[in-house]
Amino acid sequence: MLKERSDIELVVVGDYMNKSKGEKAAYQREVRELAERLKPHCHMLGGVAPEKIYSYYSLADLVVIPSQFQEPFCMVAIEAMGTGKPVLVSTRGGMTEFVKENETGYHLQEPMTPLTIAQDIEKVLDAPDLSNIANNGRKYVLENYLWWHVTNKFEKVIEKWFD
């Protein structure tokens, strides 16, 4: 990808040094090795405090979330969409409930490999409707996931329990 897009920068947020076992440890090791080969275009930030994460979204042209497990819900995708950034997410877990392909975001193809992820990133960055999709994602989050929306929905569920 760097051959075609020399201006690309990869910023990885998350605790990549966390001591994991088994497959996850092997995956983390592979990510660290790839990141080392991509320097100076790859920046491994490690864990970032929640109150500082928003400053990184503003730097992004695209937020990619290649989850390796069945995440029931992904706050990172909601946060990125809420800031108006396009998202490209794994289809594993619950993200497909709110990241609708070509409506509010984009899906990574399975099986996810470094090659397919790179292909998906290029496809999304070249999409003519990228800004419209990002705006749709932001609108969806503002209409469904602001705290007062969530609180109202939760209160209605509780009220039904006690009716």
Automatic annotation (TrEMBL):
Q: Which Pfam families match?
A: Glycos_transf_1 (PF00534)
Q: Which GO terms of the molecular function aspect are on file? A: glycosyltransferase activity
Q: Where is the signal peptide?
A: none
Q: Would I find Lyase among this entry's keywords?
A: no
Which segments constitute the Glycosyl transferase family domain? 3-139
Keywords for the protein's UniProt record, in alphabetical order: Glycosyltransferase, Transferase
InterPro entries listed in its UniProt record: Glyco_trans_1
- Enzyme Commission number(s) of this protein: 2.4.-.-
Q: Does the keyword Cytoplasm apply?
A: no
One biological process term in Gene Ontology = carbohydrate derivative metabolic process
Q: Which PANTHER family match?
A: GLYCOSYLTRANSFERASE (PTHR12526), GLYCOSYLTRANSFERASE EPSF-RELATED (PTHR12526:SF637)
Question: What name goes with this protein?
Answer: Lipopolysaccharide12-N-acetylglucosamine transferase
**To which species is this protein native?**
Salmonella enterica subsp. arizonae
